[in-house]
Amino acid sequence: MTGRLNDKVVIVTAATRGIGLAVTAAAAREGATVYLGARNMERAEARAAEINADETVKANGGVVKTVYNDATKDETYTEMVEAVAATEGRIDGLVNNFGTSDPRKDLDIEHTSVDTFVDTVTINLKSVFITSQAAIRHMPQTGGSIVNISSIGGEVPDISQIAYGTSKAAIEHLTKDIAVQVARRNIRCNAVLPGMTATDAVRDALNDTFRDMFLKSTPIRRMALPEEIAAAVVYFLADESAFTTGQCLAVAGGFGLATPVFGDLQALATARG
């Protein structure tokens, strides 16, 4: 068997759970050598072992390895990239998956402290900027692909999490800047914008009432599966997207597309039969 990512070397940051873990597994099943970036190396090794035991991964020649990366320490982004490049000789794909926000502190314009706003925006942007800058130096002339995990929250204003939304909007602009600036080197840069995704972190953070309110405005009325986000990422990593760059692809079930009263209108239509 062969995969769509055979012979490609890919780094995925913050990849021991959720979307990052799903991307790592999907890329390995497509035959890539995937470096799972993480701070907790014991957990990372356990996740790598689980994926490497997958029969599809074995059949397609994929493998998951681990590399240390701590988002709170800027130098580890560059060290992570240099370690992979030293071992593999090149980097074909980079997935900037890290992103953070504290919903207890990241509120609206009136109630969010300057420190919370600046710190959240800074760490989220640095995770893309520093890692991309380092990886580009090791991408081959035959082409490379950077995929940034943004959020539908970077497109649609919200009543809370002003820092997180701003950081994700900035990452979308950064994605386009990178795409334009490195296209001459045959390197592409795209972003995937997940909507509400059924990860453990989301399930733990959101109560049923909030989840139902969000899904009420989502035409495809369910949460995304991490594997569905991963499928979009694999497309951008694969050669089939070789002429696609600077794109921000929402994988959000249509959230933000419909009229603001979509949920109410749908409820009325359902009631009428």
From TrEMBL:
Family annotation (PROSITE patterns): ADH_SHORT
CDD domains from the UniProt entry: SDR_c
UniProt keywords, alphabetically: Oxidoreductase
One Pfam family here: adh_short_C2
One function term, GO molecular function aspect: oxidoreductase activity, acting on the CH-OH group of donors, NAD or NADP as acceptor
Family: Belongs to the short-chain dehydrogenases/reductases (SDR) family.
Protein name per UniProt: SDR family oxidoreductase
Organism of origin: Bifidobacterium avesanii
Phylogenetic classification of the source organism: Bacteria, Bacillati, Actinomycetota, Actinomycetes, Bifidobacteriales
